[in-house]
Design goal:
The termini are far apart. Helix 1 crosses helix 3 and helix 2 crosses helix 3. Helix content is 68%, strand content 0%. By secondary structure, the chain is mostly helical. It has one domain.
């Protein structure tokens, strides 16, 4: 039976969630199938873009949270 590799398989490959056998087949496809390689390049570029996103809230958001917390009637325990 022939296995058809999908974009989901590429995502799994990018995140190291594929088996050794799957890795070998995907790597062969990446070398021989230009459409598959193009999709791989697009997915890795998207992943890299996500990795570069700011992971912290902006100063404005932090200040709004602080202001909101200070406006609440809170009691020390």
């Amino acid at each position: 039976m022939t296995k058809v590799y999908t974009p989901n398989d590429l995502v799994r490959y990018i995140y190291d969630e594929t088996s050794q056998a799957e890795n070998e087949m995907i790597e062969i496809l990446l070398q021989t199938d230009t459409k598959f390689k193009t999709l791989f390049d697009q997915l890795t570029s998207s992943k890299d873009g996500l990795d570069d996103l700011i992971e912290s809230p902006s100063d404005d958001v932090v200040q709004k949270i602080i202001n909101n917390a200070q406006s609440l009637d809170m009691y020390s325990v």
